[in-house]
Amino acid sequence: AWAQAAEQLIDASRECTAEELWHQARSIRDLLDPEGAEARFAARFEKRSFRTYRDQDGQKRANMVLDDEGDLFIETILAAAMRPRRGGPRFVDSDEQERAKSLIDDPRTNDQLAYDLILDVMRAGTLADAKSVFGTRQAGVRLVQVVDADGTAAPVAHSEDHVMSMPAAVAEQHICDTGVVPVTIDECGNPLDVGREQRLFTPRQRIGLAIRDGGCRWQGCDRPASYCEAHHIDEWKKDQGHTDIDRGVPL
After folding, report:
1. Domain check: are 206 and 250 in the same one?
2. Which residues have a Cβ under 8 Å from the Cβ of 73 and sit 6 or more positions away?
3. Are residues 73 and 110 in the same domain?
4. Deepest in the core among 101, 168, 188, 210, taking most CB within 10 A?
5. DSSP secondary structure letters along 121-156
6. 39 and 157: one domain?
């Protein structure tokens, strides 16, 4: 299995960036060595820290070391709120278009916006109106775990964009905390067809596309699924395209 994995990575190296290859190598290693994956996850968790200090000018500074779950959580918060600034989708809803334009025109830098956002979230806590902070697409960590027809779950789960793997125990904890969305796929990986009864892909179909593709499928683009729109490979009007997973693509 390890030799096969090495060959797979060598083949992938011809098209992937160094960072993409690193993520693939880590995911494959964790899948082949689930016990080691859990140990490495625990080691990174033990290194988590947050400390503040004052610099020579007397300004308070902070330094944070994130564990894997914290990394995903912080990134999804920033992505949900700053999507228009960081290459997110074009919005159809007029309110979201107005919000996106307001964010793009905001004179603050991305770092300043991120700082203000984190403080707003901390102040608001559990009483926050999430929609007023993140817009219509809410922030949240989604883990994907493959379960066979006989109910056997894979020993390792992964983030929706396939970038980070997590031990099965972490996936089980998320299931206990927030539940599970079953996505049934056929042998080709095509779930949840809708046909031509509706044009827009449903939220469940978007989940299916995210699980299948991990993010934008445009060559050279590394944007995660949360930044993408679900597009018809065959144009809806011109080509009489169907709103089916196997003819959809995140871009």
Report:
1. yes
2. 141
3. yes
4. 210
5. HHHHGGG--HHHHH-SS-----EE--B-TTSPBPSE
6. yes
Cα–Cα distance list, 173 to 178, 183, 227 (Å): 9, 19, 26
Confidence band, pLDDT 50/70/90 cuts, at residue 136: very low
Across the range 154-178, mean pLDDT stands at 72
2 and 27 housed in the same domain: yes
Same domain flag for 194 and 76? no
Confidence check: pLDDT of 73 > 70: yes
- The domain in which residue 239 lies consists of 183-251
- From 203, 250, 200, 202, select the one nearest 227 (Cα to Cα): 250
Q: Give, in degrees to the nearest 5, the angle at Cα 245 between 239 and 247.
A: 30
Residue 112 shares a structural domain with residue 218: no
